Amino acid sequence: MELGEFTVVGAYSYNQASPLQWIVSHLRRYKIYIISFVIGTIMYNVLTSAISLVVGNAFNQIVSVQQRLAALLTSTLVILGIVLARGLIGLLATFTIELLAEYFERDARDELYRGLLNKSQSFHNRQRIGDIMALATNDIRQLNLMINPGVDLIFDALANLIIPLIFIGIIRLDLLLVPLLFVIVFVLSLLDFSRRIGPVYMQLRKQFGQMNAILTETINGIEIVQAAAQEGQEFDKFEQQAQHYRALFIRNGKIQGLYLPPLLLSLAVVGSFIHGVWLYVHGGISLGG
Asked: Boundaries of each ABC transmembrane type-1 domain copy (predicted)?
């Protein structure tokens, strides 16, 4: 580690070769949390899909078995056990991913502060205090949100997509027609959404730092501003930056408002239902699947 004006003895060193390697070097310190989250999320989605199979089996038993009450009671107890186990596993997965996010934010902020301590006074004289403040507060906070709910939602969505497809294939391969079409259209829609929102979001974060820097500089030099009677000019300068931030925020909101996957999911559910009814009418599947 490079020595500066201040150093921390025994500080953990992270890989800064690339953004991805830097993130991995932070997260690999907490392997047990990552493993717990991955296993918990997979098991949660497996149990969720298993409930549908148990419910379908219960319908078949109630229709065909004489002891309908006993079959219904057995299926109910099985579903209750699955729901309770799923709840505990989901709680564990949520707890571990939140801990991972908090530790990541804490370590990143600690690394930033240590990096600032290692810089020379001439470096700090060249920096805008507002940019550093925005980086140390708002931007570092985004790392926490990147893990939870960011990584949490992405991995949960993948598990919630792949595992039900496996269970649907177990029931009948024909039923995979509509879900697979949904997956293809969903991926294309998601890629298009990422392509449109990525540049706007980066501009939004950059503009926030600039707006914060101008405000901080004005407040720190308020005596000079008032002595030179430049309050109006400084207000116009900040208002211009705020208007630009507002325009980017609105543009970002419009792109998010055109997020199509929820609509595609609704169409896929309707299509799958119609397909299932068609197979049932023609004797392809039973009432419970």
From this structure: 38-289
Residue 6 is assigned to a structural domain of this protein: no
Q: Which two tokens stand for residue 27?
A: 């997260």
pLDDT in tens, 228-264: 888 888 888 889 999 999 999 999 999 999 999 889 9
The last residue of a domain, from among 111, 142, 171: 171
pLDDT at residue 250, as a whole number: 95
Parent domain of 223: 175-289
Residue 66 is predicted with a pLDDT of 63
Domain contains 132: yes
Q: How far apart are CA 185 and CA 195, in angstroms?
A: 15
For the chain, state the CA radius of gyration.
27
Counting DSSP H helices and E strands in the chain, the numbers are 11, 0
In a domain, 2, yes or no: no
Are 107 and 250 in a shared domain? Answer: no
Say what the alpha-carbon torsion angle 218, 222, 226, 232 is, to the nearest 10 degrees: 30
User: What's the whole-model pTM score?
Assistant: 0.74
- Residue whose token pair is 């931007």: 139
Give per-residue pLDDT as tens, 92-116: 999 999 999 999 999 999 998 888 8
In sequence order, the 6+-apart residues with CB closer than 8 A to the CB of 17 are none
pLDDT beyond 80 at 127: no
Sequence-ordered alpha helix ranges (H) in the chain: 19-27, 31-64, 68-118, 121-126, 129-134, 140-145, 152-171, 177-220, 222-227, 231-257, 261-281
pLDDT in tens, 56-104: 888 877 777 666 777 788 888 999 999 999 999 999 999 999 999 999 9
Q: What is the number of structural domains in the chain?
A: 2
Ramachandran region of residue 159, left (φ > 0), alpha (ψ -120 to 50) or beta? Answer: alpha
